[in-house]
What we know:
Layout: H1 3-13, E1 25-31, E2 36-40, H2 53-63, E3 71-78, H3 88-97, E4 104-107, E5 112-115, H4 117-120
Parallel strand pairs: 3-4
Antiparallel strand pairs: 1-2, 1-3, 4-5
The protein binds tetrahydrodeoxyuridine.
Amino acid sequence: MYEEIIEKAFNALENAYVPYSNYRVGACVLTTDGKHFIGANIENASYGLTNCAERNAIFQTYSNGYRKENIEAIAIVCEGKTLATPCGACRQVLDELIEKETPIILSNRKMQKVTNIKELLPYAFGKDDL
Ligand code: THU
């Protein structure tokens, strides 16, 4: 069902800039009108400035005028033996920028898991708490 965004996320992974970890991640957002926005992880010698693939993809989506209600799904892919689940920072960003139950598809070359941000970040702190 999600073959196309998974494939596009794997294409994005090819563009990862990972001289430090050598761990490539790709992401692809599918919008409700059928557009795709991709991201790859881009590292930096000042490690903390690294931007994860899923954050790059979601920021691209918003930069093109789309908002959470226009997002159908996001795929995050890696080549490791285990799935790349979003880091804490990305979970916080995704919590604000996608709907609670929007499918998040995690995939490597062997397996897939479909989850959502409600599962990945329960009891999230968000703008309604301010
Ligand atoms: N990374 C991502 O891009 N997304 C994830 O879901 C997990 C981690 C990146 C950050 C860093 O460039 C590399 O993977 C190793 O942590």
